[in-house]
Amino acid sequence: MALFITFEGGEGCGKSTQAKALWRKLIQLGISAELTHEPGGTALGKELRHLLKRKRRDYLSPEAELLLFAASRAQLIDEVIKPGLQKGKVVICDRFADSTVTYQGYGRGIDLATIKAINERATAGIKPHLTILLDMPADKGLSRKQAGHHDRFESEEIGFHQKVRNGYLELAAQEPARWMVVDATLPRNQLKALIWNKVNLLLQESRQL
Questions:
Q1: Nearest alpha carbon to residue 132 among 205, 192, 82, 49
Q2: Per-residue pLDDT of the chain (209 residues; tens, 9 = 90+)
Q3: What is the CATH number of the domain that holds 109?
Q4: Closest CA to 129 of 184, 65, 202
Q5: Contact assessment for residue 74 and residue 126, using Cβ atoms and an 8 Å cutoff
Q6: What's the number of domains the chain is made of?
Q7: Is the CB of residue 77 less than 8 Å from the CB of residue 94?
């Protein structure tokens, strides 16, 4: 029953809340599941998360940012995601490789082919069975964030976040079989139900294989 499910979306879209809700639902049903996140999920990932997200006085180049995310991802694959899938678990990850395509590619402007090559190496070829995109206008998502506590990405200008959102929608259109796009402005419980219905279908299909 091994399934790899990722949650994606812009700042303030509620993906962390929905990822945790799905994990809790699976655990309640007695389904072996693991919840992790990017950047982070490992000791190394936590260190890199701090480096990447805190506001900096020095300049962090887009290329250095890309490679730090890739390092965190490679460690997470090796320590958490691959072992979990090998044990037949449902592995849920809050952000994954698609975040790098949208933030460092569409947002920062790094060549998408370069990002694809680095992602393939960092992920060891592992791709999600399902990616859930919680979509909402960038300004609405940012307005949910607590004023004065924005990290380095949340502090970017609105144009950057609009590029990220457009990137997500383009990726979803390119792979509709993998992506589930939901309106993140819907009530939390309605979102939870929509996501569970989709995941439950996947679980039923995997049992029949």
A1: 192
A2: 799 999 999 999 999 999 999 999 999 999 999 999 999 999 999 999 999 988 777 889 999 999 999 999 999 999 999 999 999 999 999 999 999 999 999 999 999 999 999 999 999 999 999 999 999 999 998 888 765 567 888 888 999 999 999 999 999 999 999 999 999 999 999 999 999 999 999 999 887 65
A3: 3.40.50.300
A4: 202
A5: no
A6: 1
A7: no
Can you give the pTM of this predicted structure?
A: 0.94
Q: Please, are residues 98 and 142 in contact by the beta-carbon 8 Å criterion?
A: no
* Tokens read off for 118: 């680095």
101, 170 contact by CB (below 8 A): no
Residue 149's domain comprises 3-208
Which residues share a beta bridge with 42?
Answer: none
